[in-house]
Amino acid sequence: MHLRKIKKHEQETSLNDQMGQDVEGGTLTLADILPSNDLPVDDQLAFKELTHHLYKWMHLLDEREAEIIQHRYGLFHYSPLTQVALAE
Q1: Which residues partner with 28 through β-bridges?
Q2: Looking at the whole model, is its pTM more than 0.70?
Q3: Which residue of 9, 16, 17, 39 lies most exposed, with the fewest beta carbons within 10 A?
């Protein structure tokens, strides 16, 4: 039973396992080389702040202008449209 349990975990690896060394001689882990779709934290905060300001000021636009902005940039759960698609 113990041998089956060990065999099950043989192919597992940790994101923190050393994979090699970088150019400067530091350790390189799997977590360092895997791509991430997440924005860096500072970019996430800037995006959140800009979005807050955008939503705050949208009420100053007339209805047509607001609709164009919402559709062009995909705001308020709309899908973003190209300028050509929006013009149609």
Answers
A1: 20
A2: no
A3: 9
